[in-house]
Amino acid sequence: MKRLLLFLLFAGGAAFTTTIHAQQNKPPQAPGQTDAIRIGSEEVLLDLVVRDKKGRPIRDLKATDIEVFDDGVKQKLTAFRAVQPSTETPIAAAPANTTTAPASNATPAPATTSETNRQANLVTFVFERLNNESRILARQAAEEFLNNQLDSNVYATVYMMDARLRVIQHFTNDREQLRAAIGMATGQAATQFAERSESIRRELETSARLAEGLANLQGGPGGAPAGVQQDAAAQKFAEMTLNTLRAEDNAEMQVQGGMSVYSLLALVAGQRKLIGRKSVVYFSEGFQVPPNLLDPFRSAISAANRANITFYAFDARGLGSGRQLTEQGDTLMSAARSSQSQQMSRGGQAVTFDQAGIFDTAETSMRKNKQGTLAELAEGTGGFLVANTNDMRKPMQRIVTELSSYYEVSYAPPIREYDGKFHTIT
Q1: Distance between CA 113 and CA 34 in Å, rounded?
Q2: Number of structural domains, the chain?
């Protein structure tokens, strides 16, 4: 499924944006699929969530209000359906087999295909490596979702993501089971000593900056008074500790970034064949994607689009997430200081750890914005990022509204050769 930003053109010229979900399948079908599932395999199905300037859903659109363009070519709509909470057909709890439609329901009409294949609303809660404060905020947000009026066809599952992806609760519409699973996922003890290690790191960073500034004022290394030179050993020890922590930062970015990216790929792959509208509510403090993992990360976004999965990302740090910009700036400043120090030494000293990694440090700083990664994941799949706030009520209400109130349209693209390229839909 492919989600892009869609601007609808209709009488009256009201301004709004909407997220679409577009599915473009090749004619060959998997051996396990039935005739009922193969109906409309050459159609593009679009889910439209339409809002006005104030963010309120628009519920009275007609097929004539919508124009869809595929790579700039206007398409003829083959089906249109407005889905509202009062009209959506409920699904019985725990159906034994939801992948094969009964023969009596299989008709060649595209609208019927949408109705039989797009009923279930599947919601996945993912809690990724949260500290004490973040777990509290994430739990409150997830429980706020359950406090809303949900249709009976909304099924949810709960995962934890640490060293690997772990399922806490399989899909169910039992709210008490979901509350218990959310409590379990957000009630685990935080990793000890992390805050103390970070505090020591900040002290050493400050000392290093002061030492570099003093050396520059005295005309470089060796120009300091005797009283200052006697602290050289202590400065070396601090430098060694800082180098260790910085090397660990790079290793941690590789390890945690890899765990996050490949867990996302596994989550998307596991839900690819599920029928219905799929949403992932992703609670995280953000994660960094090192340059060598950019392609797998973008593959995860692409796979989510093809699988009709929308990510709603929540920066669980809440109002405390603003310090991520400080971390990004500190890393970039570290690269700048190392460059300046190397120039002032004029080759008279051995190259330090920082100086050897100037370019790597600068590149790392560009990916240091963990919140930016969450935004890329959410917006790239048709969802949105919730950050820099502790108020989770409105975002959760918006998600619930998007689950139950939307439009479905479809069209048959005039494609003769499937080359695997993305299409721009407007």
Answers
A1: 13
A2: 2
Residue 269 maps to which CATH number? Answer: 3.40.50.410
Q: Which amino acid is at 398?
A: R
Q: Is residue 417 part of a domain?
A: no
User: Per residue in 280-289, is it b (16+ CB within 10 Å) or e — as a string?
Assistant: bbbbbbbbbb
Count CB atoms within 10 A of the CB of residue 160: 20
Domain that holds residue 33: 5-118+405-411
From first to last of its 426 residues, the chain has per-residue pLDDT tens of 444 334 333 333 333 334 444 444 444 444 544 444 444 457 787 888 888 887 778 888 898 888 899 888 899 999 998 887 754 444 333 344 434 334 444 433 444 334 434 468 999 999 998 988 999 999 999 999 999 988 888 999 999 998 788 899 989 999 999 999 999 999 864 444 566 666 766 777 777 777 666 665 555 555 555 555 556 777 777 777 777 777 777 777 778 888 999 999 999 999 998 888 899 999 999 988 988 899 999 999 999 988 889 999 999 998 865 555 555 555 545 545 555 555 555 555 555 555 555 555 555 555 567 899 999 999 999 899 999 999 999 999 999 988 888 888 888 887 777 776 777 778
Residues 202 and 112 in one domain: no
The span from the CA of 211 to the CA of 337, in Å, is: 12
Backbone Cα Rg of the chain = 26
For residue 38, the number of C-alpha atoms closer than 13 Å in the C-beta half-sphere is: 10
Look at the chain and count its residues. 426
pTM of the model: 0.67
> Which residue is listed with tokens 């990004």?
328
Q: Do 48 and 156 share a domain, yes or no?
A: no
* Cβ neighbours of residue 1 closer than 8 Å, sequence gap 6 or more: 21, 22, 23, 45, 304, 305, 306, 307, 308, 309
Three-state secondary-structure class, residue 62: coil
Amino acid at 344: M
- Distance from C-alpha of 368 to C-alpha of 356, rounded to nearest angstrom: 19
Estimate to the nearest angstrom the gap between the alpha carbon of 102 and the chain centroid. 36
34-65 burial by CB neighbour count: b if 16+ within 10 A, else e? eebbebbeebbbbbbbbbeeeeebbeebeeeb
